[in-house]
Write a structure and sequence with these properties.
With about 270 residues, the chain is an all-alpha fold. The chain contains 11 helices and no strands. Helix content is about 80%, strand content about 0%.
Amino acid sequence: MTDLVDRARAAVTERAELPGMSLLDHLQELRRRIIHIAIYLIAAFFLCWGFHERIYGFMERPVKFALAQHHLSTQLNYLNPMDPFNMYLKITFLAGCVLACPFVLYEVWLFISPGLYQNEKRYVVPFMTATILLFLAGAFFGYRWVYPGSLDFLLSFNKDFHPVIEINEYTDLFLTVILGLGVTFELPILVMFLSLFGIVSPKFLWKNFRYAILIIFIIAAIITPTPDVLTMCVFATPMLTLYVISIGVSWFVHPAQRKKRSAKAAS
């Protein structure tokens, strides 16, 4: 762990020595980027509000299908008259965040790009594309397979009781699974940045593979909506696969490997 912290400190120090903006310029640039991000999020929120009922219908589809399969009422419930309105606000905001994600990522990249070397800036397009695609892949994986399977298991396990599903509880469960998987699928992107700055290396990732397995299963246990081991393994398997892929990504973008490729190209 100490070695990892030293690498991070060295990476920050190295880039702090790059010619660029002063501290005041950085603060002004940060302020400008935050304002732009806020504008994108507000605009996306109002755009998504026009489709809030369709968005919720998309979210509600898995539980309605599962309830119908078990011959149960598909009508969800609420306890407070304000619950539906608050729920619509929540899902509209999150849908707006997803919609504005490419623009937000671009603003983030514009802010950090002055601290990168010229040859590192070419990763902007792969970074943005991979970030969006990985998140959507994780969300789709959860929506198409993991979440319906979890609902079916839970309804089968609790068949001796009559379910009264409240809309806020259902929404929180849905978002925990779908967004949780979407975020965990971003592991290669995180490793890419850490490796790009030389903070982690393929050797470090491979050496600590067993600890990564433990952490991944802990994360899977947290975001898994059911208590059974099988569902936890379903969550953990793609995460382990992504970790292996991350080792390859780390090898490709690590400074040592880039220097070797540059030297080979020069010769």
